[in-house]
Amino acid sequence: MKLTNIILLLLIIAVVYAVMTYNNIVGLRHKLLSAWSDIEVQLKKRYNLIPALVETIKGYTKHESETLENVIKARNMALSAHDAGDASKAEALYKSSVSGLFGLSEAYPDLKANENFINLQNQLQAIEGDIENARRYYNATVRDYNAKIESFPALYIAKQFNFAPYEYFEVDEAIEADVYKMPKIDL
User: Fold this and answer.
1) To bridge 97 with a disulfide, which of 45, 50, 68, 70 should be the other Cys (CB 3.0-4.6 Å)?
2) DSSP string covering 30-82, please?
3) Cα 140 from Cα 155, distance rounded (Å)
4) CA distances from 39 to 53, 107, 170, 183 (A)
5) Would you say the pTM of this structure is higher than 0.85?
6) What are the domain boundaries of the chain?
C-alpha cells in the first residue's frame, strides 16, 4: 500500500470517529435534557399542590401567616429556577419551609385529622418519590454525559463544539430526610 493510501485511510477513520463521537455526545445531551424535563414535570406537580395545602392549613392556623408566606415564597422561587444549580438551592429553601408547614399539623390536632390535609400530604409524599426517581435518573445521565466529554480523546471533540459539563441536581439529604416524615395520627 502506498503511503498516501494509508494516510487517507487514517484520515477517514479519524473523521468517522469524530462524527460518531459527536453524535454520541449529542445523544447523551438530549437524554440529559429529557431527564431534566421529567424532573420539572414532577416539581410542577408538587408546586401546584402547595396552594391547596396552604388554603387547607389557613383555616386552622390563624396565627401562622409567616410560615405560610415562607412556603409561598419558596414555591415561587422554585418555580423560577431554570437549571439544576438554581433548582438545588430552591429545593433546600422549599423543603425547609414545607417542613415548618407540616410541623404545624402537630400543634393543631384538628388539622392533623383533616381528610383533605392528609390526602394532600399523601399526594406530596407520592410525588416526592417520583421526584427522587427522576433525580437519580437525571444525575446518572449527567454523570454519563460529563464522563464522555471529559474522557480522552472525546474531550477534544467536546471542546471543539463547546460541550460544557452539566451540574448534578442535589438536595441536602439532612433536609430531605426530615421534611416528609408522616406524623403519627392517633385514631
Assistant:
1) 70
2) HHHHHHHHHHHHHHHHHHHHHHHHHHHHHTT-TT-HHHHHHHHHHHHHHHT--
3) 19
4) 21, 33, 12, 27
5) no
6) 3-179
Instruction: State the sign of the Cα–Cα–Cα–Cα dihedral 11, 16, 19, 25.
Output: negative
pLDDT digits (tens, 9 = 90+) for 124-181: 999 999 999 999 999 999 999 999 999 999 999 999 999 999 999 987 654 555 544 4
CA angle 14, 16, 22 (to 5 degrees): 100
Length of the chain: 187
Per DSSP, 162 falls in state T
Task: Tell which CATH classification among 1.20.1440.20, 3.40.50.300, 1.20.950.20, 3.40.50.1970 matches the domain 3-179.
Answer: 1.20.1440.20
Rounded Cα gap, residues 58 and 157, in angstroms: 56
